């Protein structure tokens, strides 16, 4: 198996556990240039809130979308948007990515700004 296939396998296992819990999930996806976060409903059919480094307000304030500072800003924004949508408690779905670096920075910033997981 290659790196991509193993990451998708890990993501599938995590999402199966979250689906059993019937919880709203905070899904994180990262690329080499950007990071994305979505709050997805418990049924998995609706995106309740989303934030990414592609948003124009974020792009103007950041030098790069692929660093820890950008991830922390996205974590703060997704927490604010989720709270505005009435979501306080989520399950963290790291999409098979290692809990380290940008993924960790996003998660910690979301926790500091009011999301609990």
From TrEMBL:
Biological-process GO terms, alphabetical: translation
Q: Does the keyword Ribonucleoprotein apply?
A: yes
Could you name the Gene Ontology cellular component terms for this entry? Answer: cytosolic large ribosomal subunit
Checking Gene3D superfamilies in the record gives: 3.30.420.100
Pfam families the record matches: Ribosomal_L18p (PF00861)
The entry's function note states:
This is one of the proteins that bind and probably mediate the attachment of the 5S RNA into the large ribosomal subunit, where it forms part of the central protuberance.
Q: HAMAP family, alphabetically?
A: Ribosomal_uL18_B
Oligomeric state and partners?
Answer: Part of the 50S ribosomal subunit; part of the 5S rRNA/L5/L18/L25 subcomplex. Contacts the 5S and 23S rRNAs.
The entry's family comment says: Belongs to the universal ribosomal protein uL18 family.
NCBIfam families this protein is in? L18_bact (TIGR00060)
Q: Can you name this protein?
A: Large ribosomal subunit protein uL18
Lineage, uppermost ranks? Bacteria, Pseudomonadati, Pseudomonadota, Betaproteobacteria, Neisseriales
């Amino acid at each position: 198996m290659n790196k991509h296939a193993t990451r998708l396998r890990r993501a599938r296992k995590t999402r199966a556990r979250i689906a059993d819990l019937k919880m709203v999930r905070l899904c994180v996806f990262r690329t080499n240039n950007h990071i994305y976060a979505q709050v997805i409903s418990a049924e998995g059919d609706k995106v309740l809130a989303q934030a990414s480094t592609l948003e124009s307000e974020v792009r103007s304030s950041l030098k790069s979308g692929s660093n820890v500072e950008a991830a922390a800003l996205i974590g703060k924004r997704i927490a604010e948007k989720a709270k505005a949508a009435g979501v306080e408690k989520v399950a963290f779905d790291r999409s098979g990515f290692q809990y380290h670096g940008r993924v960790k920075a996003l998660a910690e910033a979301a926790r500091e700004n009011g999301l609990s997981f």
